[in-house]
């Protein structure tokens, strides 16, 4: 279900570190490369369970997750925020730090 702007802003206020650009929310974490690989595997397990996938960009000391709902025409839905919350928990478990 598509979210209105005010619903998106309310959810973002509960998710410090996540920013919105257009119809994507994203967050980057500082983590060294191999730690990032382990974190991505963990995220991949969760997205398979959820059936909702993040776009992932791994650099040598940073991993970035971008989320939007492709099936909704690349707009933001509740599933995007559910996944963002799950990614924050996984990041904490992997000691990935905020930028
Ligand atoms: C059939 C399948 O569940 C859908 O194609 C799912 C898969 N993962 C997805 N992930 C994201 N981010 N957006 C989607 O619209 C989406 N659709």
Automatic annotation (TrEMBL):
SUPFAM superfamilies: PCD-like. CDD domains: PCD_DCoH. GO terms for biological process: tetrahydrobiopterin biosynthetic process. It comes from the Bacteria. It catalyses: (4aS,6R)-4a-hydroxy-L-erythro-5,6,7,8-tetrahydrobiopterin = (6R)-L-erythro-6,7-dihydrobiopterin + H2O. Its EC number is 4.2.1.96. GO terms for molecular function: 4-alpha-hydroxytetrahydrobiopterin dehydratase activity. It is an enzyme of class 4 (lyase). Keywords: Lyase. Belongs to the pterin-4-alpha-carbinolamine dehydratase family. This is Putative pterin-4-alpha-carbinolamine dehydratase. It comes from Streptomyces armeniacus. The lineage of its organism: Bacteria, Bacillati, Actinomycetota, Actinomycetes, Kitasatosporales.
């Amino acid at each position: 279900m598509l979210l209105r702007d005010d619903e998106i802003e309310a959810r973002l206020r509960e998710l410090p570190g996540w920013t919105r650009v257009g119809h994507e929310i994203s967050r980057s974490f500082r983590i060294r490369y191999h730690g990032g690989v382990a974190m991505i595997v963990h995220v991949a397990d969760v997205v398979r369970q959820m059936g909702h996938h993040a776009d992932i960009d791994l650099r040598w000391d940073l991993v970035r997750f971008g989320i939007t709902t492709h099936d909704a025409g690349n707009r933001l839905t509740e599933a995007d925020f559910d996944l963002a919350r799950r990614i924050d928990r996984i990041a904490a478990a992997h000691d990935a730090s905020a930028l």
